[in-house]
Hints:
Blueprint: H1 2-21, E1 23-31, H2 36-47, E2 54-62, H3 67-79, E3 84-87, H4 94-104, E4 108-110, E5 122-127, H5 129-138, E6 145-150, H6 153-158, H7 160-165, E7 172-176, H8 184-188, E8 191-195, H9 200-212, E9 220-224, E10 243-248, H10 257-278, H11 299-306, E11 310-313, E12 316-319, E13 325-326, E14 331-337, E15 340-348, E16 352-355, H12 357-365, E17 375-380, H13 404-416, E18 419-424, H14 439-445, E19 451-452, H15 460-463, E20 466-468, E21 473-475, E22 477-482, H16 500-523, H17 525-528, H18 543-554, H19 566-599, H20 606-611, E23 615-617, H21 623-629, H22 634-646, H23 654-664, E24 668-673, H24 674-681, E25 687-690, E26 697-699, E27 702-704, H25 709-722, H26 725-736, H27 757-793
Helix pairs in contact: 2-10, 3-4, 10-11, 12-25, 13-25, 16-18, 16-19, 21-22
Amino acid sequence: MRQRSEAGERLELGRREDETRNIFKVGLLIPEFTLENEIDQTLLRFQTNQNWVQLEIIKVRVTPGDSLRNLEAVCQLISAGVSGILVFRPGSAFPILQSIAEVLRVPLLTVQFRYFAPGSFSVNLAPSSLSLGSGISSLLSGDLDTLVFYEDWSDLLSLENLFRETSGRRSTEFIKLSDMPSTPDLEEKRVNIVLASCNKEEGLEFLETLLVRGLLGRRKRIILPCLHFNISHLKRFHSLGAEIVLLSLDTEEKYNLEYMMLVDGLDILSKSLASLNMAGQLTHPQPRTCTNSTGWEDGYKILEKMRGTSFLGESGMVSLDETGVRSSFSLKVSETQFGKIVANGIWTPQSGYLRSKEIEISEFFSPNTEKIEGRLVVATILSSPYTMTPMTNQGEKSPSYEGFAIDLINEISSIVGFNYTLNVVSGYGSENPDGSWNGMIGEILEGQADLAIADLTINYQREKVVDFSMPFLDLGISILFVSSPSKSINIFSFITPLSGEVWILTLVGGISVSLTLFLIARVSPLETAELDSSEGVSPFLSLRHCFWFSASSWVQQGCDFLPRAFSTRTVASFWWFFTLIMISSYTANLAAFLTIERMDSPISSVQDLAKSDLKYGSIESGSTLSFFSESDSPVYKKMWSKMQSWGDSLVKSNQEGIDKVLMENGGYAFFMESTSIEYQIERNCKLTKVGGNLDSKSYGVAMRKGSHLRSRISSAIIRLRQDGVLERLKEKWWREERGGGLCLEEESSGGVSKLTLHNLGGIFLVLLLGLVLGSIVALLEVIWVFCKKRNLLI
């Protein structure tokens, strides 16, 4: 009986030892102002999920800024034999606590949202503030000036990455919250406003201050890295016009973030203790004093177990690196846009800002049909036929606008559901040497416009700073030239089919034939013999008759006398054959030469233009000029160099380029988009398109980066394309309105224009010369005969 009793006592003792072995003491330093019931509820939520080991939590209240009181509290916990200390809402005394933890080798856990200097025995459950600086930098709008507000020097230490990544931007100014400016200039200025570090209360107070100072207008982009925030906290401020960007952890709203991280800290500590305890690698720490510098040997094991751990906690995915810093995490990015709060995507230290593809796809295929609050500002530029000032019946310009772009934005606004105000600006948009942008792109980046619609080309440089919708027109760069370039008038163009040498040799040939016939006629007996009385003396015995025979045969008119001897007939036959070939060649070449002269253009492609002496150019800012300046093609590089050297070949608008083409009349070619060329040649028959397109590109609607309107506008454009609306709009503004369809295209076989005096005026002068010369010769003949008769009389 006694043996059984002793066995039972030993079993009960062993059970008690096992229970004691699974209980670990943990210290918890909490600020004096923390509500007791909130801490108790948090600890209760943790204790319901405990397994394998139990944590006996010893709570000690301290003043965060009182270094002596914090030191006494830690020493009190060390003397109680704690296996770890968790500091809730640490203050300025935390570095002292880190030093004690390193000496006594006690793991120290904390929730520090501001700058955290990693220690050899400390772990921070809050996301790394250094990584958060990179997140802030990636969300800054374009190259605008940036104002960063901070509370104390520790905030500046946490912004090391923001310092580095904003270097080279236009301007970054760091201002202490207590020194916030209230100048009217700041109210009108388009800037980024950043709060360096904040909790929920500080973030709300900061927004209230901005509201009072008038800094929540539509020209401001405010970035709040308040991880405690959720979307509901922005409802008071979302409709004031400012873009408020919120970085927050995606957690349950019913719990405070700091308390959730407190639970995660206790959870990771308990799991590390349980793992080492089950493996038999852990001994309970002995009570000791702070004056005893002997450290706990197993403290390193617990710390190494916690570092490198990843698990899904109440505050999201908790992943600690080898220094005990939570450097791998995911933040939700929310933004107020056009009076609404939109969850745009996520930001991670590894991948940066990633707009949610699920959001983009869902918005694209199932666009939100709810009407957008407020009026959007739409930037455009005067360019036919996209945006034009309409003409009244009296020919006066109306203050409103019309055109393809105006009809298109009206169609889009009716589908998407928004009202807008049109703002006409100058320039499409290119990057200035200082990094800023001009034109419509600059208007968007500076907050002056929400959208830009015109003949605005989508290219890589612009897409780096703004977003574009789906293309609404496809096109390419082509050459605008005059259809009939001016040429020098040559009334003797009928002579040009044969070269000067051929004309001279032909004349010499005729003279030689005449002389040969004259000589042979005097030598040949058959030519001089009188065959019968009717033939009489051979006419070839006269030199003037020989010349007449050669001339009449050359023009194939025949003569009233012919050679009689075989020898003279042989010479005549070869002369006739010669004149037959020459006249046939001349006639064919003349027809071809006159036709080509009327139809030929000095250029037929961009290669011809590059080799010619003609001047050419484009608009001085825009995608067309960028195509040449950034091209790797030797031909386009050469053309870009020439355009730069000429100085006057670049113009400020398409209309100025068109006027220059017409004024130069064959001396200047203008590069512009093929759609604009099609519009011009429908109205001005003196213009034509030369060659094919040099590239392929598209027009799209521009908007701010990350705008939730992108998918809705793109969906509207696809709908308009499928319904044939875009094609009808193009037909209307290209071929119907404002004189469209005036110039019909020539048939593919080509047409032959009439010959004018510019081509054949010389032959009339030759005829006139012949008439005058004949009259003079006739007068000389009369005088000759008269004189001869008087001589005979004498």
